[in-house]
Amino acid sequence: MDSPRIYLDYNASSLIRPESIESVNKVLNSYGNPSSIHKEGRSMRSLIEDSREKISNSLSTSSDNIIFTSGGTEAIDIALNQNPGRIIINSTEHIAVFESAKALNSDIDILDVDKDGLIRIDLLENLLKKGPALVSVMYANNETGVIQPIKQIAKIVKSYNSILFCDAVQAFGKVNISFNELGIDLMAISAHKIGGFSGSGALVVNKDFNGLIPKVSGGGQEFGLRGGTENLLGIISFGECASALKDLDNEGIRLKELIRLLEDNLSSLGANIFGYNVERLPNTSLFSFTEFKAESLLMKLDLAGFSVSSGSACSSGKVKERHVLKAMNIGESMQKGAIRVSLGWGSNKEQVENLINFFENTFSRKTKE
Predict the structure, then answer these.
(1) Domain boundaries in the chain?
(2) From the candidates 209, 314, 361, 366, which is the catalytic residue?
(3) Euclidean distance between CA atoms 53 and 243, whole angstroms
């Protein structure tokens, strides 16, 4: 009998939480349009508002600030549409940010990062001196896990009368986020990154941000800011998973210890760990062996029963140029060998030890050759 596969690609998409599976029964036993005024419609509306409340509680903000979308990408698209004619983009942002910005008739400035992947604060100020802009800086990078100093960035952006959008799709559910304390205007989150179903996300909007321009008009759903009948199953699943995020501090400690175990052993084999010297998500490790190209190593890992990746999962299954590592001035040979391991709620020490054994055996065989 085949050994069970080991899933270590939570940054691409989390394993579905049991809470999500249980939410299916709620929807199967319910019917009606949430916009209808009859009993069935009101029942659907109640389920949606309950989920909105659960998500807002997990972010320490008001439920009125949560606008449901079809996912993180749509939330990003709506957010960038609020720009005043100019967008400043952190050079290590998710590809969805760059693509959304390109589709807009706006000037675009790229904000460089340092060798660890942190934005250059001095360069941000220089760019803001040119005039108002929407600044896009992700909370934590989806490949390296590097966390940006969002509070500090927010203060600077506000001092220049500009807008700050934060893509928190990767950070939400992995670290505690208090939206109201961050001082940002707009933030994107996604259900499938925390164990929910794909096809549901949200744009979190600061109560002081006025005049949000919708991208999808229609029936006036989501406070008139996102038209279309709501994705009931996706939203309920999203809310249930948000409620499950109750002890992120201890979970973060647990995952950080597993990542440390992995990285200590990988370092002894000659791996380069990216973002090692700065604060990162507790579940994420991006590393490289110059002896191997990522594509060949990923194939070996897959055949051995490990699900890991070379980085972002939004490139149609292909290993493409690493814009994140390139922005960090990482050499081409190390870029080509980069592998990402990302843990989650279903990860355990045995799985990590099995992965370590794989690498030890792989390099032992290579040495003998």
Answers:
(1) 6-15+247-368, 18-243
(2) 314
(3) 10
With 0-12 / 13-18 / 19 or more C-beta atoms within 10 angstroms meaning exposed / middle / buried, residue 2 is exposed
Asked: is 18-243 a CATH 3.40.640.10 domain? The reply is yes
Which residues, in sequence order, are CB contacts of 183 under 8 Å at separation 6+? 151, 154, 155, 158, 164
Q: How far is CA 34 from the centre of its chain?
A: 29
Question: Residue 365's pLDDT band (boundaries 50, 70, 90)?
Answer: low
Q: 258 near 349, Cβ under 8 Å? A: yes
Report pLDDT for 3: 79
Span 231-266, pLDDT tens digits = 999 999 999 999 999 899 999 999 999 999 999 999
Residue range 98-114: mean pLDDT, rounded: 97
Residue 251: predicted pLDDT: 98
Distance (Å) of CA 172 to CA 169, 187, 192: 6, 10, 11
Per DSSP (E only), the strands in the chain are 6-7, 66-69, 86-90, 107-111, 134-136, 163-167, 186-190, 201-205, 272-273, 284-288, 306-307, 338-342
Annotated active-site residue 241? The verdict is no
Which two three-digit tokens encode residue 249?
Answer: 């501090």
The DSSP letter of residue 65 is G
Name the least confident of 41-55, 172-186, 217-231, 238-252: 217-231
CATH number of 6-15+247-368: 3.90.1150.10
Q: Residue 148, CB half-sphere, CA atoms under 13 Å: how many?
A: 33
